[in-house]
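Propose amino acids for all 101 sites.
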């Protein structure tokens, strides 16, 4: 499963910039990586784990602004089409799962 965090947070004041920076740092500390500006992604082992991360980060959303969390499967993530200018690039691959014997 993948959790995608998409957000618009104000940066018009010093306090708003601090809140934006804190939220972005919280995302990174929780294992999210930047997919593109204001869009961060995190791979999770299960839907339950994805819900835990979305709920945890939802509780840290700054008072002003808006954040949306979208949960999709590995298969859906693999069908993302990425275009940069006229050149098409392949999306990042899902990380390999750890297997214990």
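Proposal:
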């Amino acid at each position: 499963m993948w959790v995608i965090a998409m957000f618009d947070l104000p940066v018009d004041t010093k306090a708003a910039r601090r809140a934006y920076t804190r939220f972005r740092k919280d995302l990174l500390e929780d294992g999210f990586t930047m997919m593109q500006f204001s869009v961060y992604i995190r791979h999770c082992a299960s839907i339950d784990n994805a819900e835990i991360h979305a709920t945890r980060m939802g509780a840290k959303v700054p008072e002003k602004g808006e954040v949306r969390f979208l949960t999709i499967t590995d298969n859906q993530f693999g069908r993302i089409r990425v275009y940069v200018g006229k050149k098409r690039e392949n999306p990042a691959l899902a990380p390999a799962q750890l297997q214990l014997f």
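The CA atoms of residues 3 and 71 lie 5 Å apart. Helices lie at 14-29, 47-58, 74-78.
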